[in-house]
Design goal:
By secondary structure, the protein is of the alpha/beta class. It contains nine helices and six strands. It has one domain: Uracil-DNA glycosylase-like domain (Uracil-DNA Glycosylase, subunit E, 3-Layer(aba) Sandwich). Strands 1-3-2-4-6-5 form a six-stranded mixed beta sheet, with helices on both faces.
Length: 245
């Protein structure tokens, strides 16, 4: 990664963390952080937008929907501190893209190798449902993130929302496709310099019902890893820290 790219990610992180573009999301994320829930009543909450996390030299970008109210909105790191994250980290570790199989805190030292994770919407939305306007307000951040990650060749979309966000991001970078590729678990599409791969989202709605199993998610991430040419030797090297700047 060039210094310019690293600087771009650092600047992007600062802008995301300070963003107040969506009044409904600002009110919700801050109210959740004040009121908390009983099981986390003694913990400080992040209560701000959640930036991307992972290897700045990533070859794989994983795109989720948005931080969970008591997950990323509490811990300050995407997919950290909730059941969806537990499911995802287990699968990432299984294919050698994460150095551990679980993560409950942003300061636990978790590192990703060859991969980065970002949310299409950076604030926790009520009922996990951002509005179209909120989605569009956040979209430029993902465009800038993918543009800065010049090494990314594979994008993994978690859920239909992530799939649509990935396609919109790629179109904004000059690589629109028509007709629009259909979402489905394991679906693949070549879009400009990237391969886009879909997985069902690791939400409890999917994992508790068996719609998405660990084996299914591992298979998608293994496919992404192999397409991105992340070799065993690369995975064995000392990983980057997950934070830029």
């Amino acid at each position: 990664m060039t210094n310019a790219a690293a600087d771009a990610l650092t600047a992007l992180r600062a802008e995301i963390v300070d963003c107040r573009r969506c009044p409904r999301l600002v009110e919700w994320r801050e109210r959740v952080a004040r009121e908390k829930v009983a099981r986390f009543r003694d913990e400080p909450y992040w209560g701000r937008p959640v930036p991307g996390f992972g290897d700045p030299a990533a070859r794989i970008l994983v795109i989720g929907l948005a931080p969970a109210a008591h997950g990323g909105n509490r811990t300050g790191r995407v997919f950290t501190g909730d059941a969806s994250g537990d499911f995802l980290w287990f699968a990432l570790h299984a294919v050698g893209l994460a150095d551990r199989a679980s993560s409950r805190r942003a300061d636990d030292g978790l590192t990703l190798v060859g991969a980065r994770i970002a949310a299409a919407v950076r604030c926790a939305p009520p009922a996990n449902k951002p509005t179209i306007e909120e989605r569009d307000n956040c979209a430029p951040y993902l465009v800038r993130e993918l543009a800065a990650l010049a090494g990314v060749s594979v994008v993994v979309a978690l859920g239909r929302f992530g799939w649509d966000a990935a396609l919109s991001t790629m179109a904004a970078l000059g690589h629109a496709v028509s007709p629009k590729p259909r979402f489905g678990h394991g679906a693949e599409a070549g879009v400009g310099p990237w391969t886009l791969i879909a997985s069902y989202h690791p939400s409890q709605q999917n994992t508790f019902t068996g719609r998405l199993t660990s084996a299914m998610l591992v298979d998608v991430l293994r496919r992404a890893r192999d397409l991105a040419w992340i070799t065993p030797a690369m995975r064995a090297r000392t990983p980057h820290s997950g934070r830029v700047g």
